[in-house]
Fold:
Amino acid sequence: MGLFDWIVGAAGRDAGIQLLPQVIELPAVDSRWTVAWEPGADARLIRSAQQQRLTLTHGRALDAIAALQHWLKAEGRRHLPDWLALVAADTGHRYTTVSVRLQRSRWGSCSSSGRISLNAKLLMLPPDAVRYVLVHELAHTVHMNHSRAFWSEVARHQPDWREQVRVVKARAPALPAWVHAHAKPPANLR
Ligand SMILES: [Zn+2]
Structure:
């Protein structure tokens, strides 16, 4: 049973309301957003960058969660492609395109044609761990596997990679539940 089933299965109550955060920490980019909730007919999100504040109106909790996921992807697109370009300039790797999504389980992927896909959840990791994930995907542009040659390529550009693997694994289960909820974006956000 997925989280969504659990939410709608909660006997008519809008149980998703328990998932709504007051604060969202994005350690990767050293930011901390406060979330103000206002009841309303549909989900609308106002982002105030200066105050690092999100104001969300919502009717149903699931719509609000979808709006937050939409915002997290937008934040990911604001930061991760430039970050990847910087790291690639540093390591000398070449990729063709980068996209930012909100995948359920993978932090990133790299296709055989060098298309890199990054998870917006990376923003919830410490910066060194994000760099490790970027180096990992870039190393796949050279080795499309997890061979010893691959790991030595990673180690060349991120010597503390073992420590970063531990950090990523430890953080994954601690991510807030709203990030994973199956929520379909409301029409006004699609
Ligand atoms: Zn890999």
About this structure: Strands lie at 23-26, 31-39, 44-48, 53-58, 97-101, 108-110, 115-119. The chain has one domain: 3-176. Residues 136, 140, 146 surround zinc ion (CB under 6 Å). The first strand starts at residue 23 and ends at 26.
